[in-house]
Amino acid sequence: METNIPKTSTVFSALLKSDFTVLWRNRRAVVLSIVMPVFILMMWKGLIPLLGGPYTMANSLSYGLIATTLLGYANTLARDREKGIFQRLRVAPMPGWVIMMSRLTVQILMIIIITTVIFIVGNNFDKITLSAEGYALTYFVAVVGAAVYLSVGQLIVGLIRNAETVNTTSRFVFVIFIMAGTFATIYSAEHKSSMIAQITHWSPYGAVNTMISAGMVPDKWNMDATYALLATIGYIIVFATIGIQKFKWDSK
After folding, report:
1. Kind and range of the H or E element at 168?
2. What ranges do the domains of the chain cover?
3. 27-31: which pairs have CB atoms within 8 A and are 24 or more residues apart?
4. pLDDT by residue (tens digit) across 66-76?
């Protein structure tokens, strides 16, 4: 009997449709991921004279990227692994990268949506406008920045098998990023040469934020932004490499 093996593109389309269905069913979490950075951007309007419009908008965007990638991606992977979904998919005649690429495609769409909403609110509420090049470059660096938090999520799922522990750990890391980012940003604005400011600047959060804020104003892109981009790529390589090597398709 001849066995018909479906094309990789056909399998990918089916997986993508399934992942979008799951995303729609979890639309409450999606809305919260969008509302949170918008709320922060509106609350931080008073800091625009101190930090500048692009930097304030970049901070808000960073929070949205952390929420949708670190929390959503890591927890979804952990839950699906514990339910045995990955084991069933692995039995199918398709490469493992197709499964992960489908998940990442959904994440990229969420990143584009959040970035677009931030642009709209920033323009209408805070009167922050960018050039056409600034909007285009920000979309690019937002995806690169989100890849840092995706790789952190991959690292957590790779090192921890239990879904509940993954959930707790990802939330703990999320709080660290948010709290450190909020207080360190305000502190660093007045103490730029302090050690705390330097540590924050070159942390994953700081590097991503520096890169995004510079991307919003391409004319002001300098070597500091380039080094932040390189540091971001370095974080992605390290976290993703370890997370992929340690990742198991089953929770046992």
Report:
1. helix 163-190
2. 8-246
3. 29/72, 30/68, 30/110
4. 888 888 888 88
